Amino acid sequence: VVVILMASLLISWTAGVIVFFLSILTHGVFLFLSSQGLLPQPAVQAGPLAIWISGTTVFSWVMFLVYIGNRNLREALHRALRNEHDLKKSRTELEAYTTDLERRVVQLQVAADVARDAASLQEVGPLLDRAVDLVRERFGFYHAGIFMIDIRHEYAVLKSATGEAGKQMIANGHKLKVGEVGMVGY
Hints:
Blueprint: H1 2-11, H2 13-35, H3 48-120, H4 124-139, E1 145-149, E2 155-161, H5 163-171, E3 175-177, H6 182-185
Antiparallel strand pairs: 1-2, 2-3
Helix pairs in contact: 1-2, 1-3, 2-3, 3-4
């Protein structure tokens, strides 16, 4: 019985079935040998066939219980693995949602700060400079700039930018042809 249990639980269900049939066969061989006088007689007074049937019945019940237990363990393991997969998927989705939410919060904070500054500043130049600084700082960009379309809608003209290079570009009148030059022009 112990060998059947160990084979079923530690190796596989198939190994348990093989050991079950080998146990029944071995039990029968021992009973046959003892009935022929080659092995000592069992202490039970029943005949060899009755002993073999009772042993086979015990082995069969053990196999049935092992089968039920093994099936239940496999189903529980399958459910646990499926739940683990679902939890990992949910965690990944939550992390992505949280990252997106954090990005949106920063965007809203920048928009609120620019709106507050727009209400308090009377001139466009300082407002654009403040907006560019906020965008670069809050989003962690190396450089930021604001282009505005000229009156003829031909060029995107750099009106505000961060850093010395940005100030130099503004001083040089940096502009990009609308619809032709790079992402900004497009």
